[in-house]
Amino acid sequence: MSLILTPLSTQKFTLKNRLALPPMATAKAKADGAMSDEILSYYDEKTRDQNLGLVIVEHSFISEEGRANKNQLSASKDLHVEGLRALSDLLRRNGAFSCLQINHAGMYARPSDASVVPFGVSSHPEKEVRVMTKEDIKKVISDFSAAARRAKEAGFDAVEIHSAHGYLLNQFYSPLTNKRTDGYGGSLENRRRIHLEVLKALREAVGESYPVFLRLGASDYQEGGTTIQDSMETAKILEREGLDLLDVSGGFAGYTNPHENTQGYFRDLTGELKKNLHIPVLLTGGITDLLAAEKILVNEESDLIGIGRAIYKDSEFLRKELDHFRRG
Question: Taking every annotated instance into account, which residue ranges of this chain make up the domain NADH:flavin oxidoreductase/NADH oxidase N-terminal (predicted)?
């Protein structure tokens, strides 16, 4: 059997194959972030063919001041749990292991109240921010923890912490934006401190047996930014502290690699990270055919393959590709 259709099992979870739908914002939630029929219809259309092993639902804000856009999904209030449960139930019926990604946008936040100044890890030359105090940091950690509890209560099989694409945790991680001089800035150890504190808080909220993933902006791909060496060290520590899966993307380069545009363009990151980790590694980036995906798995450059834009553009993409792939 091809690797792409082989189950992946860990001590905490099993995926029926190596195909994942990565988180992609739909901006289809209601104004307050509540679940909508449009979101449910969207995910049903993308998953009803039962071909996806893992679905990571789009980033959901953990607090109003961390909201990234007007119609972003919310995991910020207990009253949103029932709506989220409708989505986890749908994904389960459609045969997928479901994960909810939770996020704080930091300086890129756009709260409903336009008078609220977004949090900043440090002052920023081009953005008006409110530099975070230790109390602000504690609140964010608590908000991540509460959002993870809601994900579990809503029936999702796992929760994912978002630390990529320049959002708040990535703003702490990257020296491009973290100019702090306290225990959360300066050295790599300090810049990743909040990640470990968030992970610990999540564990206390959801228990040891519940899978916790993290999407890491593993390289900024620019001078003075984070590097693969930083992320290898950080990923090993996160694994040691109980992380269950590493979802790899870009940092301040976003979800693209400025130096590479072939299929699986984050292979330079996932290949090195996989050599150093025991937990599964997920690669997303420009995959448009399953033969290329299979080659990445055979070359041990990743454990899982995320296919985003191709499925976003064509809900029949995976069914057609699998028919072609199985015929060889």
Answer: 5-320
